[in-house]
Amino acid sequence: MSQDTQSIVRTIEEKMNMPRENGELVFRTPWEGRIFAMAVLLMEKGIYPWKTFNGKFVEEIGEAEQEQPGKEIVSAYYQHWVQAFEKVLMEKEVLTKEQLQSRTHEFKSGQRHHVC
């Protein structure tokens, strides 16, 4: 992990209440770790700034809390992360909605195993 990436991850850890156990980030399934890594990598590459992603993530959490008050957000934390990530990718024109849907289908069906 480069120093830039380490700095981004530290910033994310400081500013977001991410799921943790014994002080360490927790990814309950492999896809959670992958989506975290993809979001960090694209921030590191300059595709979008941290505050753009963070703003979308905060919106996603806020919408979820309004739709289901009192529901534990932690259990769906990375699902909200995915939704924010998808919105940023489309807004920044990294992927169209159709491309995103196609890649999602490819991953779910096992046709695609890599990000690029």
Number of helices: 5
- Can you give the helix content as a percent range? 55-70%
- Helix and strand content put the structural class at mainly alpha
Spatial gap, N to C terminus: 19 Å
The value of Rg in angstroms is: 14 Å
In terms of per-residue confidence, which ranges show pLDDT below 50 for 5 or more consecutive residues?
none
Q: Approximately how much beta-strand content do the residues carry?
A: under 5%
General shape: globular
Which sheet architecture does the biggest sheet show?
A: 2 strands, antiparallel
Give the topology:
Blueprint: H1 3-15, E1 20-21, E2 24-25, H2 30-44, H3 50-67, H4 77-91, H5 97-109
Antiparallel strand pairs: 1-2
Helix pairs in contact: 1-2, 2-4, 3-4
Describe this protein's structure:
- With 116 residues, this protein is mainly alpha-helical.
- It contains five helices and two strands, in the order H-E-E-H-H-H-H.
- Strands 1-2 form a two-stranded antiparallel ribbon.
- A hairpin with a 2-residue loop joins strand 1 and strand 2.
- Helix 1 crosses helix 2 and helix 3 crosses helix 4.
- The longest helix has 18 residues.
- The two termini are 19 Å apart.
- The model has no long low-confidence stretch (mean pLDDT 82).
What keywords describe this structure?
mainly alpha, two-stranded antiparallel ribbon, 116 residues
